[in-house]
Design a protein that fits this description.
The protein is elongated, with a radius of gyration of 25 Å. It has 351 residues and is α+β, with helices and mostly antiparallel strands. 24% of the residues lie in helices and 34% in strands.
Length: 351
């Protein structure tokens, strides 16, 4: 049995199903992301795990013990809220030590552990400040220290980086991941940001409409999506309508694809723009390659890459080139090449 086990969790609000038969196993020391769009049930799942709301069905086991109906204060879980939920009238030290005071930890031990936690999140020397005197990143660190200082069995992070600017969010991803690894603390991280999930966690559970669509490593989720939703939600992808012939073979833009398609019905081709390269129209495809032709519609500089939109017989697709590489001029006829193994085929969704 895994360290943390969620089995058959369900939660309804009147006629709406928020969480529908969620099952998840998490090993001790593992970091797992619950990733999905707003309203998919990821925060509701986290709050049931924390004991903040009761499930309608299912069970939660921690280290072999049943905790499904156990009160939140007895679960020893550290929760970092999206809003941080700091007490404005308390200074940093009192905010961090609040959970220890509630547990009646002796004052000297509380002081020692608060100092230790603040050092861990690089806030030593700011003990006397109030939350309003801190930056957003510092407030986030205070909330993290408050969750860690109780030495929780499980750390729960609920969209805890969403209020930070992009540069600070990037830095905090690495800091939190380093702390999680150094402490070996079991962590569940709720996010709608795929970059956070891919960079901060050992495994990702992608959720849709209250259910888990796929669980796997970041590489599995990105490279081998199990469903159309996962392929579309995680990472960027071109979606090209494919055609079937009478024998069931699939082609796109009139070019046969050396890829096995799902049985029956219309299908779409998914291919990552990073996996595509442009070539002169006279360059042959080569073995194991897909080759389409089109013309450059426009190029857009995006900072770390250049996005090139190519228009062909069946629509448009996006190609990403590394910054510093001069893109072809608009209107240039080009060949579009990618490895056949980078082709993903999924049933077409009804309009």
């Amino acid at each position: 049995m895994s360290y943390l086990e969620l089995a058959g969790l369900q939660k309804r609000y009147r006629d709406s199903v928020a969480v529908d038969d969620v099952a998840l196993s998490v090993e001790k020391g593992e970091a797992v992301a619950l990733l999905g769009p707003s309203g998919c049930g990821k925060t509701t799942t986290l709050r049931m795990l924390a004991g903040l709301i009761d499930p309608d069905a299912g069970s939660i086991r921690l280290d072999g013990a049943e905790i499904t109906r156990q009160p939140a204060h007895k679960r020893n879980m550290g929760y970092v809220f999206q809003s941080y939920a700091l007490f404005p009238h308390l200074n940093v030290a009192r905010n961090v030590g609040f959970g220890l005071e509630e547990r009646r930890v002796p004052r000297a031990e509380t002081s020692r552990r608060v100092d230790e936690a603040l050092g861990m999140v690089r806030l030593a020397g700011l003990e006397g400040r109030r939350p309003r005197e801190l930056s957003g990143g510092q407030q986030q660190r205070v909330a993290l220290a408050r969750a860690l200082v109780i030495r929780p069995s499980v750390l729960l992070l609920d969209e805890s980086l969403s209020n930070l600017d992009a540069k600070l969010r990037d830095a905090m991803r690495h800091e939190i991941r380093d702390i999680q690894r150094s402490l070996g603390i079991t962590t569940l991280f709720v996010t709608h940001d795929q970059v956070e999930a891919l960079t901060m966690c050992d495994r990702i559970a992608v959720m849709k409409r209250g259910r888990i669509e796929q669980i796997g490593t970041p590489e599995d989720i990105y490279e081998r999506p199990a469903t159309r939703f996962v392929a579309d939600f995680v990472g960027r992808a071109n979606v090209l309508p494919a055609m079937r012939d009478g024998a069931g073979a699939v082609s796109v833009w009139g070019v046969p694809l050396p890829a096995k398609a799902p049985a029956g019905g219309d299908v779409d081709v998914f291919v990552r723009p990073q996996r595509i390269r442009l070539a002169a129209t006279g360059e042959p495809a080569g073995e194991g390659m897909v080759r389409l032709t089109g013309r450059v519609l426009r190029s857009v500089f995006v900072g770390d890459h250049v996005e090139i939109i190519v228009e062909g017989a069946g629509g448009q697709l996006s190609v990403e080139m590394q910054s510093g590489t001069k893109p072809p001029a608009d209107g240039t006829e080009v060949a579009v090449l990618w490895q056949a193994g980078d082709t993903l085929l999924f049933p077409r969704e009804a309009a």
